[in-house]
Design a protein that fits this description.
Blueprint: E1 2-6, H1 10-22, E2 27-31, E3 43-47, H2 50-57, H3 59-66, E4 70-72, E5 75-79, E6 82-86, E7 91-95, H4 96-109, E8 113-115, H5 123-132, E9 158-159, E10 164-165, E11 168-169, E12 176-177, H6 185-202, H7 206-236, H8 246-254, H9 262-268, H10 270-282
Parallel strand pairs: 1-2, 2-8
Antiparallel strand pairs: 3-7, 4-7, 5-6, 9-12, 10-11
Helix pairs in contact: 1-4, 1-6, 2-3, 2-6, 3-4, 6-7, 9-10
Amino acid sequence: MTVLCLGSGPAGLYFAISMKLRDAGHQVTVRERSRANDAFGRGVVLSDAAPRRMQQNDPASTDAIRSHFVCWDDIVVVHDGRRTVSGGRGFAGIGRKQMLVLLQDHARALGVDLRVETEFDGAETSCKICERHAGGHALMSHAAHLRGPTVWMKFPRVICESWYNGNVVLMGDAATRGYLSIGPGVRLAFDSAIALADYLLNEPPLEAAFERYQAERRTEVLRLQSASRNSLEWFEAAERYPDLPPEQFACSLLTRSQRISHENLRLRDPDWLRGARPRSRSRGRTTRCR
């Protein structure tokens, strides 16, 4: 199979790697308009569960990434002069540039043709194709002159009715995007890349593979996008919360996405939750942490 990936972000690189792992005979090319060491965003945070599927898919790149992880268990919230520490999380962080460099090196070692600072000759044609399906909405630009944090000034929510057309399929931020405060982007990129590579191997022809990829990944994407939106709305309404007692403020912050319930907090860190209840009640306030 001949594969062309436009963009060397986590989705494109990891999909290229996954395809070569399934069949070294695949001709896989990745084209990237930016420089090899450009990274749009500073760091990547994954839950401790995220690398498990990566480990099954590609132990070599996962081990390389793990070797650069900084891991921690606690979330510290400082409010009204009080430091609240809630544990039981299980996070792992890595610099985005470091992660991309590791994936680039691994992709090249597998025989992926990685071409950076290269425009795609068919970009204009692709834009015209996309515009026919955009319903009059303007296409978002990833302008070449924008570098570093400049491109993160806005957080559009991207929802595509269809993720494929003919032999073209969308992954990563091209297919779905949400607010980054709960960190779903890279996790979605890796999981989608693995799923698409599996379906292309096991669900011929292309249309059947693309249809299953879209159907099975959409549910997880929408779930995480909903959680991202809840988190965004919490921060946009942050002026509501400064007068809360520190424990109640921490509970509100930790459960803002609604992916983590108060029962989940109890399972993760029962000692903290037991300690939070009497302090909250002593201030004469009603708290959701019951």
